[in-house]
Design a protein that fits this description.
The chain is an alpha/beta fold. It is 19% helix and 28% strand. It is built from 9 helices and 33 strands. Strands 21-22-23-24-25-28-30-31 form an 8-stranded parallel beta barrel, surrounded by 4 helices. Helix 1 packs across helix 5, helix 3 crosses helix 4 and helix 8 packs parallel to helix 9. The chain is globular.
Length: 612
Protein backbone atom coordinates (compact mmCIF):
# COMPACT_ATOMS: atom_id res chain seq x y z
CA UNK A 1 0.00 0.00 0.00
CA UNK A 2 3.01 2.32 0.11
CA UNK A 3 2.40 2.93 -3.59
CA UNK A 4 -0.72 4.94 -2.73
CA UNK A 5 1.33 7.23 -0.51
CA UNK A 6 4.15 7.62 -3.02
CA UNK A 7 1.75 8.42 -5.83
CA UNK A 8 -0.07 11.00 -3.75
CA UNK A 9 3.17 12.65 -2.68
CA UNK A 10 4.30 12.95 -6.30
CA UNK A 11 0.97 14.44 -7.39
CA UNK A 12 0.94 16.99 -4.60
CA UNK A 13 4.55 17.98 -5.10
CA UNK A 14 3.97 18.46 -8.81
CA UNK A 15 0.93 20.60 -8.07
CA UNK A 16 2.99 22.82 -5.78
CA UNK A 17 6.17 22.91 -7.90
CA UNK A 18 8.48 25.88 -7.41
CA UNK A 19 9.73 28.19 -10.19
CA UNK A 20 13.13 27.01 -11.36
CA UNK A 21 14.73 30.45 -11.08
CA UNK A 22 14.16 30.48 -7.30
CA UNK A 23 15.37 26.97 -6.57
CA UNK A 24 19.00 27.92 -6.17
CA UNK A 25 18.16 30.89 -3.99
CA UNK A 26 16.16 28.70 -1.65
CA UNK A 27 18.61 25.78 -1.76
CA UNK A 28 16.11 23.10 -2.64
CA UNK A 29 14.77 20.97 -5.44
CA UNK A 30 11.63 21.89 -7.33
CA UNK A 31 9.29 20.30 -4.78
CA UNK A 32 11.14 19.72 -1.52
CA UNK A 33 11.24 16.25 0.01
CA UNK A 34 8.39 13.83 0.68
CA UNK A 35 6.95 13.47 4.14
CA UNK A 36 7.89 10.43 6.20
CA UNK A 37 6.22 8.57 9.06
CA UNK A 38 7.88 7.05 12.11
CA UNK A 39 5.90 4.71 14.34
CA UNK A 40 5.77 5.32 18.09
CA UNK A 41 7.50 8.69 18.18
CA UNK A 42 6.81 8.93 21.91
CA UNK A 43 9.35 6.17 22.60
CA UNK A 44 12.22 7.95 20.82
CA UNK A 45 14.57 10.68 21.92
CA UNK A 46 12.37 13.73 21.39
CA UNK A 47 12.73 17.46 21.94
CA UNK A 48 9.48 19.37 22.20
CA UNK A 49 8.88 22.43 20.06
CA UNK A 50 5.49 22.96 21.71
CA UNK A 51 4.67 26.29 23.29
CA UNK A 52 4.31 29.77 21.88
CA UNK A 53 4.98 30.23 18.17
CA UNK A 54 5.07 33.56 16.35
CA UNK A 55 2.28 33.83 13.77
CA UNK A 56 1.21 35.90 10.78
CA UNK A 57 -2.32 35.76 9.37
CA UNK A 58 -2.20 35.75 5.57
CA UNK A 59 -5.65 35.52 3.93
CA UNK A 60 -4.33 36.54 0.47
CA UNK A 61 -1.23 34.30 0.72
CA UNK A 62 1.02 37.28 0.08
CA UNK A 63 3.71 35.58 2.13
CA UNK A 64 3.89 32.83 -0.48
CA UNK A 65 2.97 34.37 -3.85
CA UNK A 66 3.73 37.73 -5.40
CA UNK A 67 1.07 39.76 -7.21
CA UNK A 68 1.73 37.71 -10.39
CA UNK A 69 1.03 34.50 -8.43
CA UNK A 70 4.67 33.47 -8.68
CA UNK A 71 6.60 32.35 -5.64
CA UNK A 72 7.52 35.50 -3.74
CA UNK A 73 11.17 36.54 -3.54
CA UNK A 74 10.33 38.13 -0.20
CA UNK A 75 8.27 35.23 1.14
CA UNK A 76 7.63 34.82 4.81
CA UNK A 77 9.36 31.44 4.67
CA UNK A 78 12.66 33.31 4.25
CA UNK A 79 12.27 35.12 7.60
CA UNK A 80 13.95 38.20 6.13
CA UNK A 81 15.32 41.07 8.23
CA UNK A 82 16.16 44.58 6.96
CA UNK A 83 19.82 44.78 5.97
CA UNK A 84 19.93 48.49 6.85
CA UNK A 85 17.57 51.30 7.79
CA UNK A 86 16.56 51.86 4.17
CA UNK A 87 15.74 48.22 3.43
CA UNK A 88 12.07 47.34 2.97
CA UNK A 89 10.78 44.16 4.62
CA UNK A 90 7.01 44.19 5.16
CA UNK A 91 6.72 41.51 7.81
CA UNK A 92 8.42 40.59 11.06
CA UNK A 93 7.74 37.33 12.86
CA UNK A 94 9.60 38.43 15.96
CA UNK A 95 7.20 41.29 16.68
CA UNK A 96 4.06 39.40 15.60
CA UNK A 97 1.47 37.85 17.89
CA UNK A 98 1.85 34.34 19.28
CA UNK A 99 -0.36 31.25 19.35
CA UNK A 100 0.05 28.14 21.45
CA UNK A 101 1.12 24.89 19.78
CA UNK A 102 -0.51 22.44 19.96
CA UNK A 103 -3.75 24.30 19.48
CA UNK A 104 -6.17 25.55 16.86
CA UNK A 105 -6.16 29.23 15.98
CA UNK A 106 -9.98 29.60 16.02
CA UNK A 107 -10.38 29.14 19.77
CA UNK A 108 -7.27 31.11 20.76
CA UNK A 109 -8.04 34.49 19.21
CA UNK A 110 -11.51 36.03 18.78
CA UNK A 111 -10.56 37.61 15.45
CA UNK A 112 -9.81 34.12 14.06
CA UNK A 113 -13.00 32.44 15.28
CA UNK A 114 -14.39 31.93 11.77
CA UNK A 115 -11.08 32.25 9.91
CA UNK A 116 -10.30 29.81 7.12
CA UNK A 117 -7.18 30.39 5.09
CA UNK A 118 -3.42 30.62 5.47
CA UNK A 119 -1.60 31.30 8.71
CA UNK A 120 2.18 31.20 9.14
CA UNK A 121 3.93 29.83 12.24
CA UNK A 122 7.55 30.41 13.25
CA UNK A 123 9.64 28.83 16.01
CA UNK A 124 13.34 29.38 16.74
CA UNK A 125 15.47 26.73 18.43
CA UNK A 126 18.99 25.49 19.09
CA UNK A 127 19.87 21.83 18.71
CA UNK A 128 23.04 19.82 19.18
CA UNK A 129 22.68 16.42 17.51
CA UNK A 130 24.79 13.40 18.36
CA UNK A 131 27.26 12.76 15.52
CA UNK A 132 26.04 10.03 13.19
CA UNK A 133 22.41 10.26 14.28
CA UNK A 134 19.48 11.34 12.12
CA UNK A 135 17.02 14.10 13.00
CA UNK A 136 13.37 14.38 11.97
CA UNK A 137 10.88 17.18 12.42
CA UNK A 138 7.63 15.55 13.56
CA UNK A 139 4.09 16.93 13.36
CA UNK A 140 1.32 15.07 15.15
CA UNK A 141 -1.21 16.80 12.92
CA UNK A 142 -1.86 20.10 11.14
CA UNK A 143 -5.06 21.17 9.44
CA UNK A 144 -5.13 21.02 6.45
CA UNK A 145 -2.44 21.70 3.82
CA UNK A 146 0.96 22.20 5.40
CA UNK A 147 4.22 23.38 3.82
CA UNK A 148 7.27 23.25 6.08
CA UNK A 149 10.53 25.25 5.87
CA UNK A 150 13.70 25.02 7.93
CA UNK A 151 16.18 27.90 7.84
CA UNK A 152 14.64 29.14 4.58
CA UNK A 153 14.73 25.74 2.88
CA UNK A 154 11.51 24.05 1.89
CA UNK A 155 11.29 20.58 3.42
CA UNK A 156 8.03 19.51 1.78
CA UNK A 157 4.25 19.40 1.93
CA UNK A 158 1.62 17.33 3.71
CA UNK A 159 -2.11 17.20 2.97
CA UNK A 160 -4.66 16.02 5.54
CA UNK A 161 -5.68 17.51 8.86
CA UNK A 162 -5.59 14.55 11.24
CA UNK A 163 -2.59 12.31 10.61
CA UNK A 164 1.10 12.59 11.58
CA UNK A 165 4.05 13.30 9.30
CA UNK A 166 7.81 13.79 9.55
CA UNK A 167 10.51 15.50 7.50
CA UNK A 168 14.17 14.52 7.79
CA UNK A 169 16.42 17.44 8.70
CA UNK A 170 19.69 15.55 9.17
CA UNK A 171 22.50 17.82 8.01
CA UNK A 172 20.15 20.79 7.81
CA UNK A 173 19.82 21.63 11.50
CA UNK A 174 22.40 23.91 13.10
CA UNK A 175 23.68 23.99 16.66
CA UNK A 176 22.24 27.50 17.11
CA UNK A 177 19.66 29.87 15.65
CA UNK A 178 17.47 27.51 13.64
CA UNK A 179 14.03 28.65 12.60
CA UNK A 180 11.20 26.46 11.39
CA UNK A 181 8.40 28.18 9.49
CA UNK A 182 5.14 26.44 8.65
CA UNK A 183 2.45 27.56 6.25
CA UNK A 184 -0.88 26.04 7.30
CA UNK A 185 -3.96 26.48 5.09
CA UNK A 186 -7.32 25.14 6.26
CA UNK A 187 -9.46 26.31 3.35
CA UNK A 188 -12.08 23.70 2.48
CA UNK A 189 -11.84 22.19 -1.01
CA UNK A 190 -14.32 20.39 -3.21
CA UNK A 191 -11.70 17.75 -4.01
CA UNK A 192 -10.50 17.53 -0.39
CA UNK A 193 -10.98 14.84 2.24
CA UNK A 194 -13.17 15.90 3.98
CA UNK A 195 -14.82 18.06 1.36
CA UNK A 196 -16.58 21.45 1.52
CA UNK A 197 -19.50 20.76 3.85
CA UNK A 198 -19.26 19.16 7.29
CA UNK A 199 -21.06 19.38 10.62
CA UNK A 200 -18.06 20.21 12.77
CA UNK A 201 -15.71 23.16 13.20
CA UNK A 202 -12.87 23.43 10.71
CA UNK A 203 -10.21 24.08 13.33
CA UNK A 204 -7.04 25.36 11.65
CA UNK A 205 -3.42 25.26 12.66
CA UNK A 206 -0.79 23.11 14.31
CA UNK A 207 -3.39 21.25 16.34
CA UNK A 208 -1.11 18.53 17.70
CA UNK A 209 2.42 18.32 19.05
CA UNK A 210 5.56 19.36 17.16
CA UNK A 211 8.82 17.66 18.14
CA UNK A 212 12.35 16.92 17.00
CA UNK A 213 13.04 13.19 16.87
CA UNK A 214 16.60 11.85 17.00
CA UNK A 215 17.34 8.27 15.93
CA UNK A 216 20.41 6.22 14.94
CA UNK A 217 21.61 6.17 11.34
CA UNK A 218 19.68 2.93 10.79
CA UNK A 219 16.63 2.68 13.02
CA UNK A 220 13.40 0.81 13.67
CA UNK A 221 10.96 2.81 11.56
CA UNK A 222 7.83 0.70 11.84
CA UNK A 223 6.52 -2.60 13.19
CA UNK A 224 3.33 -4.59 13.67
CA UNK A 225 3.01 -6.80 16.75
CA UNK A 226 -0.43 -8.39 17.22
CA UNK A 227 -2.02 -11.80 17.59
CA UNK A 228 -2.11 -13.83 14.42
CA UNK A 229 -5.57 -13.74 12.89
CA UNK A 230 -7.57 -16.65 14.30
CA UNK A 231 -5.08 -17.45 17.08
CA UNK A 232 -4.97 -16.59 20.78
CA UNK A 233 -1.47 -17.88 21.47
CA UNK A 234 0.63 -16.92 18.45
CA UNK A 235 1.89 -13.43 17.73
CA UNK A 236 2.57 -12.66 14.08
CA UNK A 237 3.90 -9.43 12.67
CA UNK A 238 6.76 -7.69 10.96
CA UNK A 239 9.43 -5.04 11.48
CA UNK A 240 10.89 -2.49 9.07
CA UNK A 241 14.25 -0.73 9.44
CA UNK A 242 15.31 2.45 7.66
CA UNK A 243 18.86 3.52 6.94
CA UNK A 244 22.10 2.68 5.19
CA UNK A 245 22.39 -0.77 6.83
CA UNK A 246 18.93 -2.28 6.40
CA UNK A 247 19.97 -5.95 6.72
CA UNK A 248 20.31 -6.61 10.45
CA UNK A 249 19.42 -9.05 13.20
CA UNK A 250 16.26 -7.89 14.99
CA UNK A 251 14.83 -9.37 18.20
CA UNK A 252 11.20 -8.95 19.17
CA UNK A 253 10.54 -9.90 22.79
CA UNK A 254 7.86 -9.73 25.48
CA UNK A 255 9.81 -10.31 28.71
CA UNK A 256 6.78 -10.71 30.98
CA UNK A 257 5.43 -13.48 28.71
CA UNK A 258 8.90 -15.09 28.32
CA UNK A 259 8.49 -14.82 24.54
CA UNK A 260 11.20 -13.87 22.08
CA UNK A 261 12.16 -14.32 18.44
CA UNK A 262 15.12 -13.14 16.36
CA UNK A 263 14.92 -12.57 12.61
CA UNK A 264 17.10 -10.98 9.95
CA UNK A 265 15.77 -8.12 7.85
CA UNK A 266 16.27 -8.14 4.08
CA UNK A 267 17.84 -5.55 1.81
CA UNK A 268 14.73 -3.41 2.18
CA UNK A 269 14.96 -3.56 5.97
CA UNK A 270 11.89 -5.81 6.30
CA UNK A 271 11.34 -9.08 8.13
CA UNK A 272 8.22 -10.98 9.15
CA UNK A 273 8.11 -13.01 12.35
CA UNK A 274 5.88 -15.17 14.52
CA UNK A 275 6.28 -16.47 18.05
CA UNK A 276 4.16 -18.45 20.50
CA UNK A 277 3.12 -16.67 23.69
CA UNK A 278 0.86 -17.40 26.63
CA UNK A 279 -0.87 -14.10 27.28
CA UNK A 280 -3.58 -12.55 29.39
CA UNK A 281 -5.82 -11.22 26.66
CA UNK A 282 -6.84 -7.56 26.61
CA UNK A 283 -10.50 -6.83 27.42
CA UNK A 284 -12.38 -3.70 28.52
CA UNK A 285 -12.70 -5.23 31.99
CA UNK A 286 -9.02 -6.18 32.14
CA UNK A 287 -7.00 -4.03 29.70
CA UNK A 288 -3.69 -5.86 30.11
CA UNK A 289 -0.72 -4.28 28.35
CA UNK A 290 2.71 -5.90 27.90
CA UNK A 291 6.04 -4.22 27.34
CA UNK A 292 7.15 -5.19 23.84
CA UNK A 293 10.77 -4.65 22.82
CA UNK A 294 11.95 -4.35 19.22
CA UNK A 295 15.75 -4.40 19.20
CA UNK A 296 17.93 -4.04 16.12
CA UNK A 297 21.73 -4.01 16.13
CA UNK A 298 21.92 -0.25 16.61
CA UNK A 299 18.46 0.77 17.79
CA UNK A 300 15.70 -0.37 20.11
CA UNK A 301 12.12 0.68 20.76
CA UNK A 302 9.77 -0.24 23.60
CA UNK A 303 6.02 0.02 23.65
CA UNK A 304 3.03 -1.06 25.73
CA UNK A 305 0.83 -3.34 23.60
CA UNK A 306 -2.29 -5.36 24.38
CA UNK A 307 -3.31 -8.56 22.64
CA UNK A 308 -6.85 -9.63 21.80
CA UNK A 309 -8.80 -11.14 18.91
CA UNK A 310 -11.79 -9.63 17.17
CA UNK A 311 -13.97 -11.39 14.59
CA UNK A 312 -17.54 -11.85 13.44
CA UNK A 313 -19.59 -15.01 13.18
CA UNK A 314 -22.93 -14.44 11.50
CA UNK A 315 -24.53 -11.55 13.35
CA UNK A 316 -22.22 -11.89 16.37
CA UNK A 317 -19.13 -9.83 17.22
CA UNK A 318 -16.62 -11.95 19.13
CA UNK A 319 -13.91 -10.51 21.38
CA UNK A 320 -11.42 -13.23 22.32
CA UNK A 321 -13.95 -15.75 21.03
CA UNK A 322 -16.83 -14.50 23.21
CA UNK A 323 -19.98 -12.65 22.04
CA UNK A 324 -19.88 -8.95 22.73
CA UNK A 325 -22.41 -6.11 22.76
CA UNK A 326 -20.75 -2.77 22.09
CA UNK A 327 -22.11 -0.28 24.60
CA UNK A 328 -20.86 2.84 22.94
CA UNK A 329 -21.04 6.55 22.30
CA UNK A 330 -19.80 8.73 19.42
CA UNK A 331 -17.37 11.58 20.09
CA UNK A 332 -15.74 14.47 18.30
CA UNK A 333 -12.22 15.64 19.01
CA UNK A 334 -13.62 18.59 20.95
CA UNK A 335 -11.93 19.75 24.14
CA UNK A 336 -14.01 19.54 27.32
CA UNK A 337 -14.54 22.74 29.33
CA UNK A 338 -12.51 25.08 27.10
CA UNK A 339 -13.86 24.24 23.58
CA UNK A 340 -11.50 24.00 20.63
CA UNK A 341 -9.62 21.00 19.29
CA UNK A 342 -8.74 18.38 21.92
CA UNK A 343 -5.16 17.14 21.91
CA UNK A 344 -3.85 16.29 25.39
CA UNK A 345 -3.84 13.11 27.46
CA UNK A 346 -5.88 15.03 30.05
CA UNK A 347 -8.55 15.81 27.42
CA UNK A 348 -8.64 12.15 26.48
CA UNK A 349 -8.97 10.92 30.06
CA UNK A 350 -11.85 13.33 30.67
CA UNK A 351 -13.79 12.27 27.56
CA UNK A 352 -13.14 8.57 28.05
CA UNK A 353 -13.96 8.94 31.74
CA UNK A 354 -17.40 10.30 30.87
CA UNK A 355 -17.88 7.39 28.46
CA UNK A 356 -16.95 4.89 31.18
CA UNK A 357 -19.33 6.60 33.62
CA UNK A 358 -22.05 6.21 31.00
CA UNK A 359 -21.39 2.47 31.03
CA UNK A 360 -19.55 2.31 27.73
CA UNK A 361 -17.07 -0.36 26.70
CA UNK A 362 -16.81 1.25 23.24
CA UNK A 363 -16.39 4.68 21.61
CA UNK A 364 -16.81 5.77 18.03
CA UNK A 365 -14.17 8.39 17.24
CA UNK A 366 -15.90 10.38 14.51
CA UNK A 367 -15.41 11.61 11.76
CA UNK A 368 -11.64 11.59 11.29
CA UNK A 369 -8.58 10.17 13.07
CA UNK A 370 -8.38 11.55 16.61
CA UNK A 371 -5.10 12.41 18.31
CA UNK A 372 -2.75 9.63 19.39
CA UNK A 373 -3.27 10.34 23.09
CA UNK A 374 -6.91 9.31 22.72
CA UNK A 375 -5.97 5.89 21.36
CA UNK A 376 -3.26 5.25 23.95
CA UNK A 377 -5.59 6.24 26.80
CA UNK A 378 -8.29 3.95 25.35
CA UNK A 379 -5.73 1.13 25.51
CA UNK A 380 -5.00 1.90 29.17
CA UNK A 381 -8.61 2.50 30.25
CA UNK A 382 -10.16 -0.43 28.42
CA UNK A 383 -12.38 1.28 25.83
CA UNK A 384 -12.86 -0.36 22.43
CA UNK A 385 -12.59 2.00 19.46
CA UNK A 386 -14.15 2.64 16.06
CA UNK A 387 -11.60 4.74 14.11
CA UNK A 388 -12.89 6.61 11.06
CA UNK A 389 -11.46 8.06 7.85
CA UNK A 390 -12.67 11.61 7.04
CA UNK A 391 -14.69 10.44 4.03
CA UNK A 392 -17.86 12.30 4.94
CA UNK A 393 -21.07 13.14 3.05
CA UNK A 394 -20.18 14.30 -0.48
CA UNK A 395 -16.66 13.43 -1.66
CA UNK A 396 -15.44 14.02 -5.24
CA UNK A 397 -15.87 10.30 -5.97
CA UNK A 398 -14.61 10.34 -9.57
CA UNK A 399 -11.44 12.35 -8.93
CA UNK A 400 -8.35 10.04 -8.79
CA UNK A 401 -6.42 12.57 -6.67
CA UNK A 402 -9.24 12.64 -4.12
CA UNK A 403 -9.03 8.87 -3.81
CA UNK A 404 -5.25 9.03 -3.41
CA UNK A 405 -5.72 11.66 -0.71
CA UNK A 406 -8.27 9.52 1.15
CA UNK A 407 -6.19 6.37 0.87
CA UNK A 408 -3.07 8.20 2.05
CA UNK A 409 -4.83 9.58 5.14
CA UNK A 410 -6.23 6.13 5.88
CA UNK A 411 -2.82 4.51 5.47
CA UNK A 412 -1.23 7.09 7.78
CA UNK A 413 -3.67 6.42 10.62
CA UNK A 414 -3.30 2.66 10.10
CA UNK A 415 0.46 3.11 10.39
CA UNK A 416 0.16 5.17 13.56
CA UNK A 417 -2.38 3.01 15.39
CA UNK A 418 -2.18 -0.57 14.19
CA UNK A 419 -0.60 -1.72 17.47
CA UNK A 420 -3.44 -0.32 19.59
CA UNK A 421 -5.48 -3.15 21.09
CA UNK A 422 -8.41 -0.79 21.64
CA UNK A 423 -9.07 -0.35 17.93
CA UNK A 424 -11.35 -3.09 16.62
CA UNK A 425 -13.06 -1.26 13.73
CA UNK A 426 -11.67 0.74 10.84
CA UNK A 427 -14.46 2.84 9.31
CA UNK A 428 -14.08 3.96 5.69
CA UNK A 429 -16.95 6.50 5.53
CA UNK A 430 -19.91 8.27 7.09
CA UNK A 431 -23.34 8.94 5.51
CA UNK A 432 -22.24 8.88 1.89
CA UNK A 433 -24.97 8.81 -0.81
CA UNK A 434 -25.21 5.62 -2.85
CA UNK A 435 -23.84 5.88 -6.41
CA UNK A 436 -21.72 3.57 -8.53
CA UNK A 437 -18.74 5.92 -8.25
CA UNK A 438 -19.11 6.05 -4.47
CA UNK A 439 -19.43 2.27 -4.22
CA UNK A 440 -16.22 1.78 -6.22
CA UNK A 441 -14.34 4.40 -4.17
CA UNK A 442 -15.33 2.95 -0.80
CA UNK A 443 -14.88 -0.69 -1.75
CA UNK A 444 -11.31 0.16 -2.78
CA UNK A 445 -10.74 1.81 0.60
CA UNK A 446 -12.13 -1.26 2.38
CA UNK A 447 -9.77 -3.48 0.36
CA UNK A 448 -6.85 -1.21 1.32
CA UNK A 449 -7.69 -1.64 5.02
CA UNK A 450 -7.83 -5.44 4.70
CA UNK A 451 -4.48 -5.49 2.90
CA UNK A 452 -2.83 -3.25 5.52
CA UNK A 453 -4.47 -4.80 8.61
CA UNK A 454 -6.28 -8.13 8.23
CA UNK A 455 -6.61 -8.54 12.02
CA UNK A 456 -9.38 -5.97 12.50
CA UNK A 457 -12.92 -5.44 11.23
CA UNK A 458 -14.16 -2.96 8.63
CA UNK A 459 -17.28 -0.84 8.88
CA UNK A 460 -18.94 2.41 7.76
CA UNK A 461 -21.98 4.44 8.73
CA UNK A 462 -24.22 3.51 5.81
CA UNK A 463 -27.55 4.47 4.27
CA UNK A 464 -30.97 2.91 4.89
CA UNK A 465 -34.45 3.40 3.44
CA UNK A 466 -38.06 2.95 4.45
CA UNK A 467 -40.24 0.56 2.46
CA UNK A 468 -43.15 2.60 1.15
CA UNK A 469 -46.48 1.77 2.72
CA UNK A 470 -44.93 -0.27 5.55
CA UNK A 471 -43.19 0.26 8.87
CA UNK A 472 -40.05 -1.54 7.64
CA UNK A 473 -36.65 0.14 7.49
CA UNK A 474 -34.13 -1.76 5.37
CA UNK A 475 -30.36 -1.50 5.62
CA UNK A 476 -29.29 -2.73 2.18
CA UNK A 477 -26.50 -0.31 1.22
CA UNK A 478 -24.32 -2.14 -1.40
CA UNK A 479 -21.25 -1.34 0.69
CA UNK A 480 -22.51 -3.94 3.15
CA UNK A 481 -21.30 -6.62 0.72
CA UNK A 482 -17.65 -5.96 1.60
CA UNK A 483 -17.79 -4.75 5.21
CA UNK A 484 -17.53 -6.96 8.29
CA UNK A 485 -19.88 -4.91 10.47
CA UNK A 486 -22.83 -2.77 9.38
CA UNK A 487 -23.09 0.77 10.68
CA UNK A 488 -26.22 2.90 10.39
CA UNK A 489 -27.16 6.46 11.37
CA UNK A 490 -30.84 7.14 12.04
CA UNK A 491 -32.60 10.07 13.69
CA UNK A 492 -36.12 8.84 14.33
CA UNK A 493 -37.90 11.45 16.42
CA UNK A 494 -35.57 14.33 15.54
CA UNK A 495 -35.13 14.64 11.77
CA UNK A 496 -37.52 11.79 10.96
CA UNK A 497 -41.02 11.94 12.44
CA UNK A 498 -42.10 12.09 16.05
CA UNK A 499 -40.33 10.18 18.84
CA UNK A 500 -43.19 7.64 18.85
CA UNK A 501 -42.35 6.59 15.29
CA UNK A 502 -39.58 4.41 16.72
CA UNK A 503 -42.21 2.26 18.48
CA UNK A 504 -43.66 1.11 15.14
CA UNK A 505 -40.48 0.56 13.13
CA UNK A 506 -38.99 -2.85 12.35
CA UNK A 507 -35.46 -3.19 10.97
CA UNK A 508 -34.41 -5.59 8.21
CA UNK A 509 -31.13 -6.38 6.47
CA UNK A 510 -30.24 -8.80 3.66
CA UNK A 511 -26.79 -9.24 5.19
CA UNK A 512 -26.11 -11.89 7.80
CA UNK A 513 -23.84 -9.45 9.64
CA UNK A 514 -23.87 -7.59 12.97
CA UNK A 515 -25.26 -4.05 13.13
CA UNK A 516 -24.00 -1.11 15.17
CA UNK A 517 -26.54 1.71 15.30
CA UNK A 518 -23.80 4.28 14.89
CA UNK A 519 -25.88 7.43 15.40
CA UNK A 520 -29.21 8.49 16.86
CA UNK A 521 -30.21 11.30 19.18
CA UNK A 522 -31.60 14.81 19.53
CA UNK A 523 -30.50 18.33 20.41
CA UNK A 524 -31.05 19.71 23.91
CA UNK A 525 -29.67 22.81 25.54
CA UNK A 526 -28.33 21.88 28.97
CA UNK A 527 -30.53 23.45 31.64
CA UNK A 528 -33.45 24.16 29.28
CA UNK A 529 -36.49 22.35 30.64
CA UNK A 530 -40.09 21.85 29.58
CA UNK A 531 -42.48 19.02 28.72
CA UNK A 532 -41.39 16.09 26.57
CA UNK A 533 -43.08 17.59 23.51
CA UNK A 534 -41.03 20.81 23.55
CA UNK A 535 -38.08 20.67 21.19
CA UNK A 536 -34.60 21.69 22.43
CA UNK A 537 -35.42 20.77 26.04
CA UNK A 538 -33.67 18.07 28.02
CA UNK A 539 -37.06 16.36 28.38
CA UNK A 540 -37.53 16.13 24.59
CA UNK A 541 -34.09 14.54 24.21
CA UNK A 542 -34.78 12.21 27.12
CA UNK A 543 -38.09 11.11 25.55
CA UNK A 544 -36.41 10.29 22.24
CA UNK A 545 -33.89 8.08 24.08
CA UNK A 546 -36.72 6.24 25.85
CA UNK A 547 -38.38 5.43 22.51
CA UNK A 548 -35.04 4.54 20.89
CA UNK A 549 -34.21 2.04 23.64
CA UNK A 550 -37.52 0.28 23.09
CA UNK A 551 -36.87 0.02 19.35
CA UNK A 552 -33.24 -1.04 19.67
CA UNK A 553 -34.14 -3.91 21.99
CA UNK A 554 -36.27 -5.41 19.20
CA UNK A 555 -33.56 -5.52 16.48
CA UNK A 556 -32.35 -9.15 16.42
CA UNK A 557 -29.03 -8.46 14.65
CA UNK A 558 -28.08 -5.37 16.69
CA UNK A 559 -24.70 -5.83 18.37
CA UNK A 560 -23.85 -2.31 19.42
CA UNK A 561 -24.85 1.34 19.62
CA UNK A 562 -22.92 4.62 19.58
CA UNK A 563 -25.49 7.43 19.92
CA UNK A 564 -24.77 10.96 18.78
CA UNK A 565 -22.95 12.31 20.76
CA UNK A 566 -20.93 12.34 24.00
CA UNK A 567 -20.42 16.10 24.32
CA UNK A 568 -21.78 19.22 22.62
CA UNK A 569 -19.36 20.41 19.94
CA UNK A 570 -18.91 23.50 17.79
CA UNK A 571 -20.38 23.57 14.29
CA UNK A 572 -20.90 26.58 11.96
CA UNK A 573 -24.11 24.96 10.66
CA UNK A 574 -25.83 25.40 14.04
CA UNK A 575 -26.90 29.04 14.17
CA UNK A 576 -30.08 29.17 16.32
CA UNK A 577 -29.54 32.03 18.81
CA UNK A 578 -29.71 31.29 22.53
CA UNK A 579 -29.94 27.55 21.88
CA UNK A 580 -27.27 26.37 19.46
CA UNK A 581 -24.97 29.43 19.25
CA UNK A 582 -22.71 27.49 16.87
CA UNK A 583 -22.87 24.27 18.88
CA UNK A 584 -24.38 20.96 17.87
CA UNK A 585 -26.40 20.29 21.06
CA UNK A 586 -26.88 16.54 20.68
CA UNK A 587 -24.34 15.88 23.42
CA UNK A 588 -25.35 13.93 26.49
CA UNK A 589 -22.87 16.18 28.27
CA UNK A 590 -22.57 19.93 27.69
CA UNK A 591 -19.26 21.55 26.76
CA UNK A 592 -19.09 22.60 30.43
CA UNK A 593 -19.39 19.01 31.67
CA UNK A 594 -23.08 19.13 32.68
CA UNK A 595 -24.91 15.82 32.23
CA UNK A 596 -28.32 16.05 30.54
CA UNK A 597 -31.30 13.88 31.47
CA UNK A 598 -30.83 11.56 28.46
CA UNK A 599 -27.39 10.62 29.83
CA UNK A 600 -29.08 8.63 32.58
CA UNK A 601 -31.53 6.91 30.20
CA UNK A 602 -28.63 5.57 28.16
CA UNK A 603 -26.69 4.74 31.32
CA UNK A 604 -29.55 2.53 32.55
CA UNK A 605 -29.87 0.87 29.11
CA UNK A 606 -26.17 0.00 29.23
CA UNK A 607 -26.39 -1.29 32.80
CA UNK A 608 -29.12 -3.68 31.64
CA UNK A 609 -27.04 -4.74 28.62
CA UNK A 610 -24.06 -5.39 30.91
CA UNK A 611 -26.22 -7.53 33.20
CA UNK A 612 -27.43 -9.55 30.21
Amino acid sequence: MNGYRAALTILLCMAGAWPVQLSAQLQLGPAGGPSFQITNVQARKVTSLNGKWRTIVDPYENGYYDFRMQLSREGYFLNLKPKDKADRVEYDFDSSETLNVPGDWNSQRDSLFFYEGTLWYKKSFDYQAKPGNRIFLHFGGANYETIVFLNGERLGMHVGGFTPFDFEITGKVRARDNFVIVKVDNKRRRDGVPTLNTDWWNYGGLTREVTLVEVPATFVKDYFVQLKKGSMDTIAGWVRLNGAQPAQRVTVSIPEAHASVTVRTNAQGYAAFSLPAQLTLWTPDNPTLYEVRVEAEGDSVREQIGFRTIETRGTEILLNGKPLFLRGISAHEEAPFRAGRAFSAEDSRTLLGWAKELGCNFIRLAHYPHNENMLREADRMGVLVWSEAPVYWMIDWENPETFLNASNQLTEVLTRDRNRAAIILWSVANETPITEARNTFLKKLAALVKAEDPTRLTTAAMMHHEVAGTTEVVLDDPLGDVLDVLGCNEYLGWYDGAPEKADRVTWKSPYNKPLIMSEFGADALSGLHGDEGTRWTEEFQENIYHHQVGMLNKIPFLRGTSPWVLMDFRSPRRVLPNVQDFFNRKGLVSERGEKKKAFFVLQEFYREKARQ
